[in-house]
Every structure is written in structure tokens, then in C-alpha cells.
Specification:
With 275 residues, the protein is of the alpha/beta class. It has a single domain (2-154, 180-211, 251-262), classed as NAD(P)-binding Rossmann-like Domain (Rossmann fold, 3-Layer(aba) Sandwich), CATH 3.40.50.720. 33% of the residues lie in helices and 17% in strands. It contains 8 helices and 13 strands. The strands form 4 sheets. It has a 6-stranded parallel beta sheet, sandwiched between helices. A 3-stranded mixed beta sheet has the order 11-8-13. The longest helix has 16 residues, at 72-87. The structure holds NADP nicotinamide-adenine-dinucleotide phosphate (NAP).
């Protein structure tokens, strides 16, 4: 199989890169940002012309949710226009989307066919990307996920671990409910279910499973597991001033696949063990 991985240095892309590099039956193409600037459509077209990949895995994105409110042009370019350019080459694509396209009431599970209602500009661009996919007549799989953590770059868990070294107490939001997802688990699951197999095209919800939690619950779990004396001061999302609004509910239900990912606590334990 010939696979093109875009965004191999990112939080999610780096786990795909590690796992796919080990596979002997896969010919992996993973250009870096320097080797292939996806904002340069002429470069992308020259690279893709005349080549066929069994899968393009698109882990590129503009993911700074707050900065996206002011850097709208760049956010739209990376999240929408880049995808549009790639789709013009008519190849099977695995794309990633987010819980931030929804605004569902707390206590409900968000299904693959739930109504999209993004609260921020990042979510709006991810919704626009989904609309492009829905109009794409070739193979596409759009994986919606949330609250990723992994070994590449900063994420919520690594921030909590870092801050707990110096801070006796951390203020953490307790009214946004979701489930964290291990980038390594997600990449492994996607390889097994969307590369080794070819399901019908469409949107899919993939999160680690287990009881939903708030960011404050997750911070407490991490601090308790690492034996830290730092405590969590629970705050409401309204009490902090952030440019982008966030949904209160990020609980995604995987109603389309027989297999589910493992519980998030198991994935966090593994992550903390190897950190
Ligand atoms: N992180 C989350 O919690 C989360 C949650 C839900 C969904 N998602 C989705 O999952 C996907 C991956 O997210 P992520 O957090 O792994 O992203 P990320 O860590 O921000 O990584 C983005 C990747 O895009 C590359 N990139 C940026 N601009 C580029 C350009 N012009 N040309 C080529 N490459 C470029 C970056 O390379 P350089 O670093 O070299 O620039 C990096 O490898 C995105 O679609 C995101 O919306 C993420």
C-alpha cells in the first residue's frame, strides 16, 4: 500500500508516523512542512500530479482555537483550502475533525449525524471542511475526535504535569464535559479499521471510552496518578476570558463501528508510564 501522511510532526501525525514506519507492507510518504508547504497549492499540485496513494492521511491543521479568532485567514487556508486542493486529486482520504463543530446539551451523546453548530471560528472551518468531504464523490473517512494527548508537543496533560512542578493549586474548568483521547490509540485504531480495512465512506466518532469527565476531573486524575500534592481549584468556563467559546459537551458516541477504543483512564495510565 502507498500511503501519504501529511502533518507527521504534529500531535496526531507523529503517532501515525511512528506506527506506519514500522509496517513492511506499507510504502510511506511523509513529507515535512519544509519539504511540502501545503499552503503552496502549486507545490501540492506538482507533488500529487501523476501519483496515486491508497490513502492520504491528513493530520495537517490550524489547531490553535483561540488564535484562530484573529488569524482567520490562515486558519481557513489550513483547515479548508488545503483540503480542497488535496481533494482535487481524487484520492482516498482520511481526514480529522473535532467535537468543536457541535454545541450539544450536556448529558447527551453526540452522534455522527447530530446537527453541527460550531461556537468558534476553528469549529466553523472544520465544519466547512466536512462539507467539502460530503460533496466529494470518491472515498473519504472523516474521523471526529477530541481532547487529544500524546508525546509530540504540548497538550492538556503535559501542561498539567509541567505546572504541577511549581504551582500548589491549578484553576481548571469543570463545566466542559468530554473524554480525552490518546493520539497513539487513535492512530492505531485508524490504521486497523480504515487502512487495513475499507469501510463505507462517512463521518466517524472516535474517542477513548469510559465515563465522561471534565477538564478538572482529568487534571485531578493525572495529579493523583503521579502522586502530586498540587490541588485542583474548579472554575466555570465563564470565569475565564478566552477569545474562542467552547462547547460544554464533547461526548462523542461511536454508533457506527462494532469496535470501540479502550477507556481513557487506561490510555492515560499508559501515557503517564512512558512520559
Ligand atoms: N489536538 C486536538 O486536541 C484535536 C482534537 C480534535 C481534532 N483534532 C484534529 O486532528 C488533526 C491533527 O491535529 P493535531 O493536534 O495533531 O495538530 P498539530 O499538532 O497542530 O499539527 C499540525 C501539523 O500540521 C503541519 N503543518 C502546519 N502548517 C503546514 C503547512 N503549511 N504545510 C505543511 N504542514 C503544515 C505541522 O507541521 P509543522 O509543525 O512543521 O508546521 C504539524 O505537523 C487536525 O485536523 C485537528 O483539527 C485535534
Amino acid at each position: 500500500m502507498r500511503i501519504l501522511l501529511l502533518g507527521k510532526t504534529g500531535l496526531l501525525g507523529s503517532d501515525f508516523f511512528d506506527l506506519l514506519s514500522l509496517r513492511e507492507n506499507i510504502e510511506l510518504f511523509a513529507p515535512s512542512h519544509r519539504e511540502l508547504d501545503l499552503l503552496n497549492a502549486a507545490q501540492v499540485n506538482a507533488f500529487l500530479a501523476g501519483q496515486f496513494f491508497d490513502r492520504i492521511i491528513n493530520c495537517v491543521g490550524y489547531t490553535n482555537v483561540d488564535l484562530a479568532e484573529t488569524e482567520r485567514g490562515r486558519c481557513k487556508q489550513l483547515n479548508v483550502q488545503v483540503l480542497d486542493t488535496i481533494l482535487s486529486h481524487r484520492q482516498p482520504i482520511i481526514n480529522f475533525s473535532t467535537d468543536y463543530i457541535f454545541d450539544a446539551p450536556v448529558g447527551t451523546s453526540i452522534r455522527e449525524d447530530s446537527i453541527r453548530a460550531p461556537l468558534n471560528y476553528y469549529g466553523e472551518t472544520k465544519k466547512q471542511a466536512e462539507l467539502l468531504l460530503e460533496a466529494y464523490p470518491f472515498s473519504w473517512w472523516n474521523i471526529r475526535t477530541s481532547w487529544l494527548f500524546g508525546t509530540s508537543g504540548k497538550n492538556f496533560i503535559s501542561t498539567i504535569l509541567e505546572k504541577s512542578k511549581t504551582e500548589p493549586s491549578l484553576r481548571v474548568v469543570s463545566d466542559e464535559i468530554g473524554r480525552p483521547t490518546s493520539a497513539r490509540d487513535l492512530a492505531k485504531f485508524v490504521i486497523e479499521e480504515f487502512i487495513n480495512k475499507t469501510p463505507e465512506k462517512g463521518h466517524f466518532h472516535l474517542q477513548n471510552t469510559g465515563d465522561p469527565c471534565s477538564w478538572a476531573d482529568l487534571a485531578e486524575y493525572v495529579l493523583q496518578k503521579t502522586g502530586s500534592k498540587t490541588t485542583v481549584h474548579r472554575i466555570s468556563s465563564d470565569s475565564i476570558d478566552r477569545p474562542a467559546r467552547r462547547p460544554k459537551n464533547s461526548v462523542l458516541a461511536n454508533t457506527k463501528m462494532l469496535r470501540q477504543m479502550r477507556p481513557w483512564k487506561e490510555a492515560v495510565d499508559v501515557f503517564l508510564g512512558r512520559d
